[in-house]
Amino acid sequence: QVQLVESGGGLVQPGGSLGLSCAASGSIFSFNAMGWYRQAPGKERELVATITSGGSTNYADSVKGRFTISRNNAKNTVYLQMNSLKPEDTAVYYCNANRGPFGYWGKGTLVTVSS
Q1: What 8-state DSSP symbol labels residue 25?
Q2: Are residues 22 and 36 in contact, defined by beta-carbon separation less than 8 angstroms?
Q3: HEC string of 28-87?
Q4: Pairing verdict, β 77-82 and 67-72
Q5: Distance between CA atoms of residues 28 and 64, nearest Å
Q6: CA gap 59, 82 in Å, rounded
Q7: pLDDT, mean of residues 69-96
Q8: Contacts for 8-11 with beta carbons within 8 Å, 24 or more apart?
Q9: What is the pLDDT of residues 48-58, one digit of tens each?
């Protein structure tokens, strides 16, 4: 059973930075891709960023230049560094991993951007 555990959420002021971590219960080498999604109140879940097993990255237009996704295979962990945060970045952030036809989700971590 794959488990993904997010951490690092919290309250931050506009313009601030926050880093999220997603720790997987096993080796992340077996995942085709991992990523971060977010869901704001009253909105659908949306893609934030993904990273493949080969290290290729993809970002939503709304976060390009501000967010960076990375992975540490030795620690079975994927990260999301968020800079220049805006109030509209407020959401629950979910970690996702794909292995073949199967997708796995973490329980999410809340990020609130507010003064």
Answers
A1: S
A2: yes
A3: HHHCCEEEEEEECCCCCCEEEEEEECCCCEEECCCCCCCEEEEEEHHHCEEEEEECCCCH
A4: antiparallel
A5: 24
A6: 12
A7: 96
A8: 8/109, 9/93, 9/109, 9/110, 9/111, 10/110, 10/111, 10/112, 11/112, 11/114
A9: 999 998 899 99
Encoded amino acid at 68, one letter: T
Give pLDDT, residue 73.
Answer: 86
- pLDDT value of position 67: 98
Do residues 47 and 96 lie in contact, with contact meaning Cβ atoms separated by under 8 Å?
no
At 12-40, the pLDDT tens digits run: 999 999 999 999 987 777 888 999 999 99
At residue 21, the pLDDT reads 98
Map tokens 């997708």 to a residue: 103
Q: pLDDT digits over 86-105, tens only?
A: 999 999 999 999 988 889 99
| Token reading at 24 | 């997987």
